[in-house]
Amino acid sequence: MPVTLAPSRSPMTKVSLRNLGAHKLRLFLTVLAVVLGTAFVTGSFVFTDTLKKTFDQIFSGDSQGVDVRVSLQNEASLGVPLDLADEIVDLPNVRASIKYAGGQIIIIKDGAAVQTGGAPSLGQPYLPPDSAIGQPIELIEGRAPAEPGEVIINESGAERAGLSIGDEVEVLVPNVGNFDLTITGTYSLAVDVGGFVGMQFVEEQALELFSDGSHVSRVDLAAVDGVSQEQLRDEVAELVPDAYNVQTGAEVQAQQQDELEQNLSFINYFLLAFGAIALVVGTFIIYNTFAMIVAQRLREMALLRAIGASRMQVSRSVILEALVVGVIGSVIGLFAGIGIAYSLRVLLDVFGLGLPGGPLAVQPRTIAVAFAVGILVTVVSAYAPARRASRIPPVAAMREEFSSAAESIRTRTIIGAALAVPGIALLIWGAQYTGQPGVTRVGIGAALLIVAVLFATPALATPAINALGVVAKPFGPIGKLARTNAMRNPRRTAATAFALTLGLMLVTLIGVLGTSAKVSVDKLIDQGVEADYVLTGPMQTGVPAGVTQVVDRVNGVDRAAALTFAGGFINDMGINGSSLTGGVDGMLQFNMVDGDTNMDGRTIIVDEGAAERFGLSVGDEVEIERPARDGSIEVTVSGIFERNQVVGAMMLSPSAMDALIPPFVQTTVAVMVNVDPDANVEQLRSDLEEATERFVVVQVMDREEFKGQQAQQIDLILSLLYALLALAVVIAILGIINTLALSVVERKREIGMLRAVGMHRKQLRQTIYIESALIAVFGATLGVALGLTFGWALVQTLRDEGLTVLAVPWVQVSIMLVGSAVVGVLAALWPASRAARTKPLEAIADV
């Protein structure tokens, strides 16, 4: 009569916990997979929450005490006219006011620009305590500026620039020129931003440097006692034209916070995407691990069933183990995520990217997400193996020849094929479109195809490993045995390989997009830029004012022209473009569809897309509304050209540009230089560098160097993406190690038998090396194939955005395929060594 277990789950709980304790290595590898995925998700939340909290404090300080703010709707405007500002501040319910004029500056120290990374470097007006709204700045040392030429600087900015009170410093104001200033004092900020530099001038000089002298950037107002923000806002709005924003202080802060959340959402989604990748890859490892654990414990579970354990108790024991693993992994992952967030902030600060300081923000939501994700993924991954184990009849499970590998994969294969058909169709269909419609279709198709491959991988594994086994033939019987082992359990092989498939699919996809972008940019510059030299400046400020005039006077220069950015509205729809002083002939090349590039008077040429979108033809008169929405200009369409990413959707004549955007606020993105045919090119380069030396931030490049600069920016983004994707590849490698280690345990008796009939330890190690390499190459080949397919489809959808050439990084692809075999061997080192130490007699006697 069988022994019936007590109703209490205590005996099964003890069995589960003791089983975990008895397999510490297996526990470690499984927990590690959960930790890596959970840590990345946690780290992304902590990092962005910390930034948001700190920036909220900054914005609160910026609008502290402000009841109403009158500001620009668009930066491409001269600002609020001083006469209007005077009318506003004279309203009876205004207690105090600030007429603010500020802008970008560049500090020059020892002939070089002081680097701030991504943080702003600003010039601002100094407001005495009796004029300030809210809490005035606190002077740490020295005195306030008293006359033009004197400035104070924030304490961390002074430290960064190596400046002290009394120092003379050269400052470049991009739209004005270079100035010599004297440091009279330093001040502190409520919340310091790494890299931020803030110089404060007397109000008179700030107005001179950062406006045209008759406008200010904004007007801040404080209401008299008893008047609400809304009441004062409504009074001001009656006086101010619609071209300006009139907001309460609360609305200003809310808008700043909304804009911050939108900007940070990219970082958050970016990090969360890679956290999701890590979790998906980790899920396969966890699932694979529990599937193998169940397979190895079938006889043990059968024995438990035979002595009275119910199916529910057996499945619960497996899920309990998963729960323990999930809890441990989530706890460690939470702390690891906090460490990642801290390390990321320190790393970015080292590179001077201008992130604010302050304590890390760990929200309750972050803790909840860490535990929910870690535990849920682990338990769900273990559920299917647990359910499968509970359905196995005890007598069948105790038979030696019983194996879960015998389960049919037919249903999975049919599902995979059924999903692959619409997935491929959507990819091809989406590739016919551009922009959001195309990307959406391709994205859905890619998701379907990935799931299809997930289901069909076991069916693909056997023929693929059999084909790849050709490379194992030189190893004779050892190679044949390795190939057989890899094909024996297609489910296990597929789950192991698919983790690597996902990682290398993403690496290949990004490689295709990056290489295509670089080749497309090269082609664009070769076909679109005719200038011999291109002078550029920092992205935030562009080329400083005066560079074009200085360069044009250099001996040997035939012509220098400033390329400026333009934007506006046609029929309430935005349009961006540019303008080139003196016209485009000899500087930029256009493939004209109709008309010509002769732009006299107020004329524009537009690309085919803009012509179609706005219904424009050569000779049409069109009204362009200014970016600031403070008026419009009428221009004549003189030509239509093929899309040209260098200049945007429209090209304005110089007179049309000056009418659309005031010269003082125009941003020069580059200066094009043509060389006199009789000039010495090498000498001219030296002369150009010498002429622009005082502007510090200007780079002189020929066309090849200009292409190299664009490629360098793409490479920087790719490096960041590859660094993050390395996490998925590392997890995949751990998965291979984990699977092989468990496979060695599962095949202990088989290994013992091989050793007993004469197989040497070296031969056994080689067998596992080859088996691992075959699985890794199979997964890598599948990943590369998917990555190339998705890369092709995405490049097609982005052809209107400048990706006009599909380029495959074949060298990188080849390296990845060869590297995957190396990875497979390296991943097998420890499991193979462990297998080689198996004692034959003990293994054969193992039950």
UniProtKB/TrEMBL annotation:
Show where the ABC3 transporter permease C-terminal domain sits: 273-394, 723-840
What Pfam families does the entry give? FtsX (PF02687), MacB_PCD (PF12704)
Locations listed in the record: Cell membrane
Q: Which residues form the MacB-like periplasmic core domain?
A: 28-238, 493-690
Among InterPro entries, the record links this protein to:
ABC3_permease_C, MacB_PCD, Macrolide_Exporter_MacB
Principal localization reads membrane
List the molecular function annotations (GO) for this entry: transmembrane transporter activity
> Per UniProt, which keywords does this protein have?
Cell membrane, Membrane, Transmembrane, Transmembrane helix
Query: Can you tell which superkingdom this protein's organism belongs to?
Result: Bacteria
Membrane topology is: Multi-pass membrane protein
For this protein, the parts annotated as crossing the membrane are: 27-47, 269-295, 318-342, 362-384, 413-432, 444-472, 493-514, 720-745, 768-795, 807-830
Q: Does the keyword Secreted apply?
A: no
GO annotation, cellular component aspect: plasma membrane
Name the family. Belongs to the ABC-4 integral membrane protein family.
Q: Spell out the PANTHER family in the cross-references.
A: ABC TRANSPORTER PERMEASE YTRF, MEMBRANE COMPONENT OF TRANSPORTER-RELATED
User: What name does UniProt use for this protein?
Assistant: ABC transporter permease
Organism annotation: Hoyosella rhizosphaerae
